[in-house]
Design a protein that fits this description.
Elements lengths: L5 E5 L6 H12 L2 E4 H14 L7 H7 L5 E6 L2 E6 L2 E2 L7 H10 L3 H17 L2 E5 L2 H5 L5 E6 L2 H14 L6 H17 L12 E4 L5 H14 L10
Parallel strand pairs: 1-6, 1-7, 2-6, 7-8
Antiparallel strand pairs: 3-4, 4-5
Helix pairs in contact: 1-9, 2-4, 4-8, 7-8
């Protein structure tokens, strides 16, 4: 490649962005940057200091002292705050809502967007999040908006939480998904929306493999990847 390949995958909570992006990166033999995990890291790290992610004043006061670091080990993103790997704490409902809270604050977004943009300069990446194609990398090589009905997304999240032995009911998970959607889509700074030049994919009735094949086919049509990478 003459320049880095950057693929942006945006969409609402529970649409399958991270799993699809991770699988796509593996298929194309490039890196995957989970930007949502970065916001979760901020929320979890601050909560560990006794700071409510919904308390904007407290978050902004603590933010300058928070040391954030991304490492990649065997293709896996490791999210550090103050020298501690927080990956094992990032997939809880509390981390999800905390990420939605801190992502509303422009100062948090500016700091993490700068980190994300720096990463994308260094090598080829698949990035997933909520503002990749609109804010982080408006000039991305290719953009996709992955969506699904709220009920479907809640069911997927509910099944994942059951594997973690979470006591949350489906109704509670659905309410969380709907609340997260409202917060993400209506925040003043970088709200969730589809980039004008993004390919829209509704995954409600599709398997992850079918979504992956569709994305690769679109990349092939644009000559961004070769036939061998569709294997």
């Amino acid at each position: 490649m003459n320049k880095n390949l950057t693929i942006a995958i945006d969409g609402p909570s529970g649409a399958g962005k991270s799993s699809v992006a991770k699988a796509l990166a593996k298929r194309l033999n490039i890196m995957h940057l989970d930007t949502g995990a970065m916001y979760r890291t901020v929320a979890v790290a601050l909560a560990g200091k006794g700071i409510d992610p919904a308390d904007e004043e407290a978050v902004l006061k603590a933010l300058p002292e928070l040391r954030l670091e991304l490492r990649f080990s065997e293709g896996e993103q490791q999210n550090y705050a103050d020298g501690v790997n927080l990956n094992s704490c990032l997939r809880t409902p509390e981390a999800s809502m905390g990420a939605s809270d801190v992502s509303r604050y422009p100062a948090v977004r500016r700091r993490l967007v700068a980190l994300q943009q720096d990463c994308a300069k260094s090598r080829s990446f698949v990035l997933d999040g909520r503002d990749i194609g609109t804010v982080v990398l408006p000039g991305a090589s290719a953009k996709f908006y992955l969506d699904a009905r709220a009920e479907v997304r809640a069911q997927r999240r509910f099944l994942d939480l059951q594997k973690m032995q979470s006591p949350q009911t489906y109704a509670e998970v659905l309410a969380d998904v709907q609340r997260r959607d409202a917060q993400d889509m209506n925040r003043e700074d970088s709200p969730l929306r589809q980039a004008e030049d993004a390919v829209y994919i509704d995954s409600s009735e599709l398997t992850e493999e079918e979504v992956l094949d569709l994305i690769v086919e679109k990349l092939k049509e644009r000559r961004l990847v070769g036939e061998a990478q569709n294997a």
